[in-house]
Design a protein that fits this description.
Strand 2 and strand 3 form a beta hairpin. A 3-stranded antiparallel sheet has the order 1-3-2. By secondary structure, the chain is mostly helical.
Length: about 130
């Protein structure tokens, strides 16, 4: 064990397997805040507070934890300039940009389906109420 939570000598890569190393990575990407942070960063680099305003509803603590996990996984780059106060900017790595493009496409599908989903929910709720 290398101490980073991933076994380097016997890496299991099958997301459906209980011990698959990719499950934790997938959780960081597909959690509510991870998805939104990556999609926002697809628009370009952001400073922390600007990103927090963009991702409406995320707490400072949750955004910091999310960005740290995504940085650790290699999807986000954190650039800190040694100024007073420090200027910290977040951007996507090439791997992060690849993931963000797929998430953005999914978000577009979901957003375009909102009217149909609302109709489906209404039909379902009406059928359950009978």
């Amino acid at each position: 064990m290398s101490g980073d939570g991933l076994e380097t000598d016997q890496l299991v890569v099958d997301v459906f397997a209980r011990n698959c190393s990719s499950r934790g990575i997938l959780e960081h990407i597909t959690g509510r805040w991870g998805t939104l942070a990556l999609a926002a960063l697809a628009e370009g680099p952001f400073r922390f507070n600007a990103l927090r305003r963009k991702v409406d509803g995320v707490s400072e603590k949750m955004l910091a934890q999310t960005l740290q996990a995504l940085e650790r996984d290699g999807f986000v780059h954190r650039e800190a300039e040694p100024t007073i106060p420090p200027k910290v900017e977040y951007s996507l790595t090439p791997r992060g940009a690849e993931v963000a493009a797929k998430l953005t496409a999914l978000i577009e599908v979901v957003e375009s389906a909102v009217p149909q989903v609302a109709e489906a929910r209404a039909r379902y709720d009406a059928a359950k109420a009978r």
